[in-house]
What does this fold into?
Amino acid sequence: MVKMNDTTSTTTTRHNSPIPPNIEIVATKPEMVKIQHANLGALLYPENGGYYLKYPESKVVAIASDRLCSVLDDSYMSLLFHCEREGMHQEAEEVMEDLRKAGIDADTLKRDANVEIKSGACVLDGGLDRDGGDDG
It folds into this structure.
């Protein structure tokens, strides 16, 4: 985890507008899970071109780095393709619409999703994980 004013390689270029000051930037899923467990009630939302961990009343706890955003994109696409395979087309469209409303190019993510995601062999069953660590 890093704070906004730390000088690190954790980037947040995906976010469309400025990130609130003193917000933690999280680079891995295990870090995000740890922060979420410490902030019961906070949920991970697609927002501002990336993903925010925040309370429903809008208090932001942390944001995902570009690297983690890519992993979360894969999770959303895995959910989307799962819904489509199961005939849950309304739910699949809601996933796409949620991403679009958050400023995420859902159509490009869907078009460019890799074969593993499209086939359901990843994310849902713990397969594909570009998070890079074996720490969770």
Remarks:
- Strands lie at 24-26, 43-47, 50-54, 60-64.
- Residues 69-119 form one domain.
